[in-house]
Automatic annotation (TrEMBL):
Keywords: Glycosyltransferase, Membrane, Transferase, Transmembrane, Transmembrane helix. InterPro entries: UDP-glycosyltransferase, UDP_glucos_trans. PANTHER family: EG:EG0003.4 PROTEIN-RELATED (PTHR48043), UDP GLUCURONOSYLTRANSFERASE FAMILY 1 MEMBER A1 (PTHR48043:SF161). Coiled coil: none annotated. This is UDP-glucuronosyltransferase 1-1. It is found in: Membrane. One of its GO terms (cellular component) is membrane. One of its GO terms (molecular function) is UDP-glycosyltransferase activity. Belongs to the UDP-glycosyltransferase family.
Length: 137
């Protein structure tokens, strides 16, 4: 199943049908893509979205990065809890969203490695470019 895992209905369906899933995404809120692929994501190195920081930060910028990321832990649990409950009821077993996302065959990352920031990748993560521009004649 080719799906965008931002709303986890596709991964739930792929798990139910026992078919491989291919994720096509720009990014998942709350860093679930990092958690699911088990990529390192320390706030002292990886800049968070909307902070305008790079991977070279001084101490105060690292603190800002950590503080900016803190609300995600609480907000994301609240927002994604209904999907975890839906998946557990539908699949008739206890399951978490990272467990569903870990079973992806390939992650097609629709972002540009150079423009975002350098980050570690797992072997099943492929950058396919984030710019959607047409060539002018």
């Amino acid at each position: 199943i080719l799906t965008d895992p931002a709303l986890p209905c596709g991964p739930i369906l792929a798990e139910h049908l026992s078919v491989p899933s291919v994720f096509f995404l720009r990014g998942i809120p709350c860093g679930l893509d990092f958690d699911a692929t088990q990529c390192p994501n320390p706030p002292s190195y990886v800049p968070r979205g909307f902070t305008d920081l790079t991977d070279r930060m001084n101490f105060l910028q690292r603190v800002k990065n950590l503080v900016f990321d803190t609300p995600n832990y609480f907000l994301c649990d609240f927002v994604l809890q209904p999907y975890a409950k839906l998946a557990s009821e539908f699949l008739q077993r206890d399951v978490t969203l990272p467990d569903l996302l870990r079973k992806a065959s390939i992650w097609l990352m629709r972002s540009d490695f150079v423009l975002d920031y350098p980050r570690p990748l797992m072997p099943n993560m492929i950058f396919i470019g984030g710019m959607n521009c047409a060539h002018k004649k």
